[in-house]
Specification:
The chain is an alpha/beta fold. It is built from ten helices and 14 strands. The strands form two sheets. Strands 5-4-3-2-1-12-13-14 form an eight-stranded mixed beta sheet, with helices on both faces.
Length: 271
């Protein structure tokens, strides 16, 4: 069954990337076939922009009018020019509030400044982030010293069970003052209230004059949920969260068996 797909937006970790953090050669070929058909390819991740660039290069997004959505939607990059088309940081009030949450709940905290991951305590979760993204880690005495200007994202980190308890406690307090999402089970991410992947996809569709019904969104986790629900054809990986799967139009194979390529072939290319 082929859809009239004009744009494909895909998450990176546990979606496009396998467990070795690589895009398989087969998936690259399928994405190249979609680009030849004129389909716009967009990478949409909670990752910092810097850690997404190598994957954009592997997929030749600059040569094929592709885009990067980073920090869960806070930044939109046009790959052909490297230009930031949109940036939406947290407010200083938001930043102070999240810092207080970290202190009151004894959570680790990190943010991103000058292409570094910044934290005020060594911890396994920030070490994981450094290995995952390849971005240097900067350890400072007080996280507030790193946030003298607005940042686009702050992450609170701890054991997944405890972190989920904190998230549930915070929901009525945070309300709509910020966007709050769990990405990895041990990452509770905070961005500006105007930020999520789907809102940035909507913005990009408006710029390119593409109907949202013609967009395929592929992801696995809660920070992908808005675009999976909001785009015309939402696809969830078989390794994705069960709650996210409930909102999918289709469940594809897992990230280690070319699930992204399978969905593109079946629904965008009719292969």
């Amino acid at each position: 069954m082929i859809k009239d797909i004009k744009m494909i937006v895909m998450d990176l970790d546990d979606t496009l990337l396998n467990d070795e953090l690589q895009i398989s050669d087969y998936t690259k070929k399928v994405i190249s076939n979609a680009q030849k058909k004129g389909i716009v390819i967009v990478l949409a991740s909670g990752r910092p922009t810097l850690s997404m660039l190598k994957y954009a290069q592997e997929l030749n997004l600059a040569e094929n009018n592709g885009y990067i959505i980073s920090y869960n939607g806070a930044v939109l990059i046009e790959c052909s020019t490297g230009k930031e088309l949109a940036t939406t940081p947290l407010t200083m009030e938001n930043m102070e509030f999240v810092t207080k949450i970290a202190r009151d709940n004894k959570l680790f905290i990190q943010t991103y400044v000058d292409n570094c991951v910044v934290t005020d305590k060594e911890n396994q979760y920030t070490s994981f982030e450094g290995k995952l993204t390849g971005i240097p880690i900067k350890l400072i005495d007080d996280i507030k010293d790193a946030m003298t200007k607005e940042v686009v994202k702050i992450i609170l980190m701890e054991d997944p069970i405890y972190l989920k308890e904190v998230e549930n406690k915070l929901k009525p307090i945070v309300g709509d003052s910020m966007m709050m999402n769990i990405s990895k089970p041990f990452f509770l991410e905070f961005t500006n209230r105007a930020v999520d992947k789907d809102k940035t996809v909507t913005n990009l569709c408006s710029l390119l004059n593409i109907e949202k019904e013609s967009v395929m969104a592929i992801g696995d986790s809660f920070n992908d949920l808005s675009m999976i629900k909001g785009c015309g054809f939402g696809v969830v990986m078989s390794n994705g969260h069960d709650e996210v799967k409930k909102h999918a139009k289709h469940i594809t194979h897992c990230n280690n068996t070319d699930g992204v390529a399978t969905a593109i072939n079946r629904f965008a290319l009719a292969v």
